Amino acid sequence: MSAFWTVFIVVLTLGNIAACFWLIRWTAKPRPNESASTETTGHVWDEDLTEYNQPMPRWWLNLFYITIFFALVYLVLYPGLGSYAGVLGWSQYGEYEAEVAAFEERVEPLYAGYAEQSIPELAGNESAMQTGQRIFANNCAVCHGSDGRGASGFPNLADDVWNYGGEPDQIKHSVLQGRQGVMPAFGDQLGEDGVRAVAAYVYTLNGRDWPRQDLVEQGKEQYQTLCVACHGPEGKGNQQLGAPNLTDETWLYGGNMASLRETLTGGRNGNMPAQQELLGEDRVHVVSAYVYSLSQDRQGMTGGDDN
Ligand code: HEC
Ligand code: HEC
How far apart are CA 85 and CA 51, in angstroms? Predict the structure, then answer.
């Protein structure tokens, strides 16, 4: 807080308290030339109802003095006067930290218990999965969607197609260490025509037809020299490298011609941030089980979305 606002707040707050004090003193005094017990204010209601002009009762005024005293003590102890922190050092931030710490302490044994169970075991444990869903919603849904179904560039975690593998250990590895997909750019090497040809070949890999067979043949040749190292001779991909299977109907970046050409020309570099530091191993274990459970629910279904 800037010095100006600190001064502004201090003057305003203390000024108000001083004004209250003065007001109480003022009302406490009997008016001059008035004998306190018998004078009336001169107001008359309902023909004969009159009002005595008397000072406020002592006990009532004392209540006001007490509130002023309370306010001053409060302002000494707690932050209230601009950037002055109060002698107790209390802050909302500190309060929040303490609450979080207390919460962590309470849930720690819970996670420790979960850590001893295997991922498939946890996937069948309803309360563990509720916890897993919460962790997912808070930490993963921004990228993978609240239902885990992903978006272009962010893999669908609820189908049974995995670029890095869907076994419990592989999922946990993905989450714990993160993943960096490296699909090199081939625009310069292939040129526009080359990109068109290879894209045509990739287009046909999952059983679709492309109108120009000569282009497909030409692309296949290029594929055999440039792409097999990562995507394999049949285009089935490689989970060690995160190179996607190009023969299924699921695409990370899109399987239409325009997306394929964009992928080949500019390359792709998907980045899954490592969660070890952020969440700690025990939470990663639970959320990995949740991800595993998502794909188990849909085992056998292939995601046909062509994004
Ligand atoms: C900043 C965005 C982002 C966040 C947050 C994120 N991910 Fe990812 N995740 C990605 C991307 C991008 C990939 C694909 C990486 C690649 O293309 O190589 C990925 C890949 C994965 C994979 C591998 C999928 C496969 O097909 O093998 C898993 C599993 C995964 N994420 C789980 C999670 C979980 C669980 C969380 C939350 C704890 C999470 N992710 C948080 C962006 C994110
Ligand atoms: C160095 C290994 C490597 C080489 C070589 C390579 N790729 Fe890839 N490719 C990858 C990786 C890894 C990804 C995933 C990128 C990501 O996760 O962001 C990928 C992604 C793709 C995709 C996107 C798939 C989708 O689901 O959207 C296509 C298409 C593709 N590659 C085609 C090719 C073709 C064609 C070639 C040869 C010209 C090639 N790749 C060469 C590693 C490679």
Answer: 48
- From atom 18 of ligand 1, which residue's Cα is the shortest distance away? 181
Nearest ligand atom owner, CA of 204:
2
In tens, the pLDDT along 6-58 reads 999 999 999 999 999 999 888 777 666 555 456 777 788 888 888 777 777 88
Q: What phi-psi label fits residue 150: left (phi over 0), alpha (psi between -120 and 50 degrees) or beta? A: left
Ligand 1 contact via 164 beta carbon (within 6 Å): yes
Q: How far apart are CA 187 and CA 168, in angstroms?
A: 37
Torsion of CA 60, 64, 70, 74, to 10 degrees: 150
> Cα of 260 to ligand 2 centre, how many Å?
10
Query: Is the CB of residue 194 less than 8 Å from the CB of residue 144?
Result: no
Residues sharing a CB contact under 8 Å with residue 267, sequence separation 6 or more, in sequence order: 182, 183, 184, 185, 186
Instruction: Tell me the longest C-alpha to C-alpha distance in the chain.
Output: 116
Q: Are 159 and 302 in contact (CB under 8 A)?
A: yes
Q: Is the dihedral of CA 116, 121, 127, 131 positive or negative?
A: positive
271, 180 contact by CB (below 8 A): yes
